[in-house]
Amino acid sequence: MDPFILLAAVLGLLVGSFTNVLAYRIPAGRSVVHPPSACPTCARRLSPAELIPVLSWAVQRGRCRGCQQRISVRYPLVELTSAGLYAGIATLFPLAAVGTDGLPGLALLFAAATLLLTVTLIDLDTKTIPDGVNFTLLGLLLLGGYALPALGLPSPLLPWAHTVSGAVLACGAMALLALYAALLLRRGRERLDPSVPLGYVHVALGALVGGIGALIAQPGLALPSAALVSAAVPVVALLRGRAHLTPLLPERVILGLLPVALLSAARWGRAGDALTGILTGAGTAALICGLVWWFLDRRAAAAAARGEDAAPDTAAHDPEGFGFGDVKFAAVMGALLGGPGFLVAVLLAVMSGAAFGVFRLIILRRAGHVTRDAREIPFGPWLVLGTLLSFLWGQPILNWYLTLLGAGA
């Protein structure tokens, strides 16, 4: 075996142990560096020998040395998965090919793989994807995609312009899917408790304004024009503040206007520009709103830690097709994969997630344990799986699918 691949696997094992810490502490709002690792049952601090990945779990036969309580098999499985991801990256980008100049790019991919695994674990546990992980991963990809070529270093990522456009377009596509799915589940009514001062209505309005901005832009400037004008939507809403909570148009009206605008643009041969503008507008507004919501959540958490009363969260009364964490994670997917790769990843995620959901529902029905919570499955792990498969084999999968469509025609 290539020594570099073996070294990458060992590094993955070590980082995999830390990934377990991330997945456990981030949702709880705890520091990921202090205090040192301890048994969750007896709180006994673990010795260095007990922190050796996989081996310590096997030697202790899956039990704590202090209280003898069982240690979940998930811990060594996560460590082995991390080792496999790191080894896979080292295989895809061998050191002999990338050279020492390529090590920063490989380090970026290693970090991205760790955060993707963290997303999977947290979503499995909490059915949420924390904004901190999402925006850290997105920032890492955007910064790395720009800095590596600027420093004259080889980059395993897409060209920076494609990274940015992929992030915005993918986020916009997922945001609109989430808005339309939620509207269908609400049976066309408005939300019971829209978020203020920014809400999902501003994401929809950003899509509409972005489409208009793309149509009036100069040729070739549809995307930046749409991003610029749609960014003004949440910014203006923030400046207006809580004194002006009523949006210009209801969310359902805006969502109804979008297909009308797209069809109207198609009659003038501008459907491509309109679609680009709508997706860009939705993605830009969604990312800005997401950053603001993240800031407000952190401020509310800090206030709660000080013992101050926080406003009750009643937004859960509105049914959602899928969480907005998935929408923000779509920006990560688009930044890493680009537009075509994102489509492949979503297709793979939907197919694999649906197959698992049907199989799981059959098992639960036979066991008589079908509840509303049991029917819900987190989408994040399947998006991560689709992302990894698309990153590794996206182009062959896309070519196979296009060939299949051609044969069917």
From TrEMBL:
EC number(s) given by UniProt: 2.1.1.-, 3.4.23.43
Domain of life: Bacteria
Key word Glycoprotein present: no
Pfam annotation, one family: A24_N_bact
Topology of this chain in the membrane: Multi-pass membrane protein
Domain Prepilin peptidase A24 N-terminal: residue ranges: 10-91
Cellular component GO terms, alphabetical: plasma membrane
Transmembrane segments: 102-122, 134-152, 164-185, 197-216, 222-241, 275-296, 342-362, 382-402
An annotated GO BP: signal peptide processing
Protein family (similarity comment): Belongs to the peptidase A24 family.
Protein name as annotated: Leader peptidase (Prepilin peptidase)/N-methyltransferase
